[in-house]
Amino acid sequence: MSFEEALAELEKIVGRLEKGNVALEESIAIYTRGDALKKHCDRLLRQAEMRVEKIAADAEGRPTGVEPLDVG
């Protein structure tokens, strides 16, 4: 499942839970699904962050290659 698909489903779940008109058992089930979707989205974002690179430049601003992005 793509990040966008998971996020869209998660948004629907949040909307249903915020309305408060869902039976308890169904609330628990969709909350559990939402938790799994959140973890999936987090994992995809971490993978994307690891792939992002920044352009390295010399003292005069000329590109010299790429290096890992320091997100810390």
Largest beta-sheet details: 2 strands, antiparallel
End-to-end Cα distance, whole Å, is 28 Å
Decide which structural class fits the backbone: alpha+beta
Shape: rod-shaped
List unreliable stretches of 5+ residues. Answer: none
How many DSSP H or I helices? Answer: 2
Radius of gyration equals 20 Å
Which strand order spans the largest sheet, edge to edge or round the barrel?
Answer: 1-2
What is the H/E order?
HHEE
Q: Bin the helical content.
A: 55-70%
Number of strands: 2
Calculate the mean pLDDT score and round it.
88
Give the DSSP E fraction (strand runs of 2 or more residues).
15-25%
Describe the structure.
With 72 residues, the protein is an alpha+beta fold. 62% of the residues lie in helices and 15% in strands. It has two helices and two strands. The chain has helices spanning 3-19, 24-51, and strands at residues 53-57, 63-68. A two-stranded antiparallel sheet has the order 1-2. Helix 1 runs antiparallel to helix 2 (24-51). It is rod-shaped, with a radius of gyration of 20 Å. 3% of the residues are buried. The model has no long low-confidence stretch (mean pLDDT 88).
Brief characterization of the structure:
62% of the residues lie in helices and 15% in strands.
SSE layout:
Blueprint: H1 3-19, H2 24-51, E1 53-57, E2 63-68
Antiparallel strand pairs: 1-2
Quickly list its features.
single chain; 72 residues; alpha+beta; two-stranded antiparallel sheet; 2 strands; 62% helix
